[in-house]
Amino acid sequence: xxxxxxxxxxxxxxxxxxxxxxxxxxxxxxxxxxxxxxxxxxxxxxxxxxxxxxxxxxxxxxxxxxxx
Length: 68
Known about the structure:
Layout: H1 3-12, H2 17-24, H3 28-35, H4 43-53, H5 59-62
């Protein structure tokens, strides 16, 4: 999960964190737990984020590339 890219995208699309949370149906405190890595965005939340933010791909934001 790339917190900075997510927050940049939210702002670039003209939204606030509160609007994003409302669109996903999560509390702001839950959002912060997710972006800190204490829990994960589930599939339904990612789908809602794709729709709300009009994303072409959720991969850069929600899935980090592992480097070995």
